[in-house]
Input
Amino acid sequence: MNDFALLVQFSIAVPIVAAFLTLFVKSWGRPAVQIVSVTGFALPLIFALFLWGFYDPSTPGGYAFVSNLDTGLEMIGVSLHLGLNGVSLPLFVMASVVGLAAGLFAAQSKAENLSRYLFCLLIMQGGLMGVFASIDIFFFYFFHELALIPTFIMVGIWGGRDRNYAAMKMTIYLTLGAMLSLVGLIAIYVKSGAESFDLITLKAHLAEIPLADSVQNYAFGLLLFGFGILVSLWPLHTWAPLGYGAAPSSAAMLHAGVLKKFGLYGLVQVAIPLLPDGMGHWENWIVWLALGNILVVGLIAMAQRDLKQMIGYSSVMHMGYAFLGIAAMSVLGVGGVVLMMVAHGLTVALLFMLSTMVHHRTQTFEMNEMGGLAKKAPVLAAFFVCAMMASIGLPGPGLANFWGEISIFLAVYDFRNWLVYAVVAGIVISAIYGLRAIASVFYGEEADEFIESQKEVSVEDMSWAERVPALILIVVMFFIGFFPKTVTESINDALESEPVYAQVEE
Amino acid sequence: MSAEIFQKIAETNTWSWITPELAIGVLALSLLVLEVILPKVAHGAIPRIAILGQLVILGYVVTGTCAGTLPAGEAFGGMLYFDGTGQLFRVFFLGASIFVSYLGMVSLDRRTLPQVEYFHILLVITAALMLLAQANHFVMLFVALETATVGFYILVSYFRHTTVSLEAGLKYLIMGALSSTILLFGIVLLYGAGSNPALAGSSQDSLNFGNLAGFLAANPDDTLGLIGMILVISGVAFKVGAFPFQIWIPDVYQGAPLPTTALLAVSSKAAGFAMLLSFSKVFSALGDWFYPLLSALAILTILFGNFAALTQRNLKRVIGLSGVSHAGFLLIGVIAARTVDWASIAILFYLFAYLLASAAVFSVLVHLNKDDDSDLTLDDLGDLAKKNGFLGLALAVGVGSLAGIPPLAGFIGKLLIFIAAFKAELYGLLGVAIVGVVVSIYYYFGILKSAFFDLWQFQADEEEAPTAIPGSALGFLGKLAIVIAIAGTLLLGFYQSPFSSWLVG
Output
C-alpha cells in the first residue's frame, strides 16, 4: 500500500506548487491563472478519491499510505509522518471536495487581484490536506497554521464590511487558541517522555505508561480551550460569525467547512485517546459549554437579520452537537461526530456559497430587503432549500447530516437522557431560523429595496459557472446521505480499535 | 598579576586562531587606505569591497566550522576560549555585519556624508563582538565590549546633521557609559572577592571565567561575589535591552541611522546573549540567585516590550520594542539552558531566525524613500504591497517570522524555546511568553495591515498617494539581499536538516 503514499504527499504539495504557479502565469492572462488554480484544486480531489477507493479498512496499525520524512527536527522527535486512517480519510476527501468547490467559485469570481486571491486560497488548501494527513502532531499543528494565515489575509484584503476589525479579531482569538493548543501538545510531548511528536509512538507509549492525572487534567484543559477557541466553543465563539460575515465566500467556505474541523479532529484523534482521564475530568465542562453553543447561540442565530451572519451563527451552533457527541465518548457518538463533520463541512460551504450568490442578485445580505427570489431564480432557490434542509438536519432528502446527528442523539441519550430535550429544542430552533430564512429570501412579496435594486442589476438564475461548484457539493452530500456505509464503515473500524471509545460502548 | 601570568600569556599567543578577527581588522584598515589611494570616482567601490572581503572571511569561517578545522580550547593565557558556540557566533556577527554593510551602502548613498568611516567602524565593531563571544576572561570581555560600544556611539550619531541622530547618540552615550560603569564595578567586586587569599578557591587570576567559577563554587555565599554578579547582569541587561534597562531603546532606535538601528537590534542583542551564555557557566554556583533574577527580567521584559509596542506608530520604535520582547524570549532560553542542554542551540537558532527576519524587514525599510528615516510611521507603508509586491512579500515574511508564524523560521525558534522551557518546568514563564505572543500579534499584524489591507482604500484619490515607496529600482544587490533573507527564513521554517545538524555538530 505504501506505493500510494506518494499520492498523499502530492495532494499537499500540488496546491502549494499551483499557488506559486498562479503568480508566475499572471502575465499570461486570466484564463491561465484560472486553469492553473483549478488544476491545483482538482488534482487533490482525484488523488483523494483514488486513495479512498484503495483504502483497506483492515490495515494493520490503522494507518495506510504511510510515509515518513525527516525535515531536520529529528532531534526533538519531529518528522513529516503522513498517512490516513479511517477517521482522517473521510475528512481528507471532504477537504478536497470543498476545496475544489471553493476554488471553482473563486476562480470565476470578480475578486480584484485574482491571482493573489487564488494564491492564498491554494496555500490554504495545501494546509488543509496536510492537517488531516499528518500523523505527527507537530505537523498537524503546523499545517493548521499554514491554512490559517491565508484566512486572515483574505479576510483583511478581500473581505466585506468591517473587514479590518474582523481580521484583527479573528487573528488574535485564533492565535490565542493555537498557542494554547500548542502548549497542550508540548505538554503531552514533554510529560510523556516518549521524546516524539509522533501520534502512533505517543499512543503506544502512553498506553503502557499513562500520564499522571494532574498532568492529564491540565494538558486536556489546554487542548480543550485551545481547540475550543478554534472550533468556536461557546462563549469563545464571537470571532466566528463576525469573521465569516466579513470573509470572502471561498475563504469562509474553506474555513467554516474544513479548517474549523481541525479542533474537533484534534479532540477525537489526539486529545481524548492520549488523555482519557483528562477527558473524564473536563466532561461536564464540555457538556455545559456545548449546551451554550446549541441553545444560546441558536437563539442568537434566530435573531439575525443578516443572511451571512445567520449562517455563521448556525455553523457555531452545530459545533455544539459535535461537542456533545464527543462528550458521550462512545463509538456511536464520536462516529456520529466524524460523519457530521464531513456532512457539515459540505453543507456549510454550500450555504456560504449560495448566500453570496443571493447577494449578487439582491445586493444585500439583509433578509428583510429580499423576498420572492424563487420566481426569478428557481434553480438557486432549489439548491438553497436543499442545503438549508440538510443543515437543519431534516431527514427528508436523506442527506448526510441526518445520519450524523441521529447517531449523536442516540449516543447522547445513552450518555445522559435529559440532554436529548435540549438537543431537540436545538433542532426546533434551527428549523425556525432556517425555514424563516428560506421564506423571507425566496418566497413572499419582493421588498421595496429589492425592487429598487433590480432597476440597476437584473436578476438572473444561476449560471453554469455557479452551478458546477454547487453541484459538486450537493452530489457528494446526496451520495453520503444515501450510502453512509461508504464512510461510516472506516470510521467505525478506526474508532473500534481505539480503546477509549470502544471501552465505554460495552 | 605577576610576571608569570604574562609569560604564560605570551606562550599561548596562538595568533592563527584569531585569523578571522585579524582579517577583519586588516580589511577595516585597508578601507581607509583605499579611500586615500583610489581616485574619487572609484570611491563607490569601497563599500562593495568591504562586503566582498567579509564574504570571503565568512566563507573561511563557515568552511572551517563545517570541516572542523577551526581551533578549540583556550588561548592567549585563558583570555579566549574557542568552541563550537563561539564559531557560530562568529558566523552570526559576520552575517549581521554583511547585511548591515548593505543597508549602509543604500542608506549612505542618499546622503552627503563620509562613507568609508562607517564601514571601517562597522568592521571594528564586528571584530570586537566576535572576540567578545569567545572571551574567557573578564578583562578580555570588557575590552572587547568597550571597543564595540565606543564604535556604536559614533555610528548612532553618524547622521550628524540631523538633531534626532545626535540626540540618540547623546542618550546612548550617557546610558552606555552608565551601563559600562555598572558592569565594570561588578567586575571589580568579583575580582576583589575572587583574589582574596583568605578564602578557599581564590586565585591570582581571578577574572578568568574558569577560576572565578571555581571560586564561586567554593564560596557560594560570598556577598561581594553576589553583588558583583548582580551588577554584571545589570550591565548585560542593558546590552540586550532587558527590563528595567530597556529605557534607551525606543529613542535610540528611532534616532539612529537605519543601518545602525539594525546593527543594534541584531548584533548588540546577540552579543548580550553570547555573554549571558558564558556567564551561566561562570555563575552556575550562584544559580539560586542568577536564575530567579533572569526569570524576573524575562517576565518584565516580555510584558513591557509587547505592551509598549502596542500603541506605537513609528516603525523603528515598534521594531525596537518588539526586539525588547524577543530579548525576553531569549532570556527564557538562557534560563532553560540550566537544565536542558540543547536550549543553547535553541537560542542560536532563534538568533539566526531573528537575524534573517530583521534582514528582510530592514531591507524593506531602507528602501522607503524618506529623507529622514527617524519618522517612518506605519502610514508610510500604505500601499506598499500594491506599489511594490516584492518589497511587500519581504515585509510579510520578515514580520511574520518575527511574530512567530509558521512556516517561517521564527516559529521554529519560538517552538524550540517553548519546548525547552516546558522541559525545564518553567510554567510561569511559558504562560507569560504566550501572553506576549498573543499581544505581539496585534502590532505585527498592524504593520502588515497598513502595508497590505489598505490596498484599495486610496483608489479614489490616486494622485495624492504616498511617495515613500519606490516603484522599482532595487538593484541587483538589493534583490539578492532580500531573496536571501526570504529564502533563508522559509528554509529554516520548512526544512531545518542541514542547519540543525550544523548547529549541533
About this structure: Chain A has 22 helices and two strands. Chain A touches chain B at residues 70-73, 75-76, 112, 141-142, 145-146, 149, 152-153, 156-157, 163-164, 167-168, 171-172, 175-176, 179-180, 182-183, 186-187, 189-190 (CB under 8 Å). Residues 2-505 of chain A form one domain. The mean pLDDT of chain A is 82.
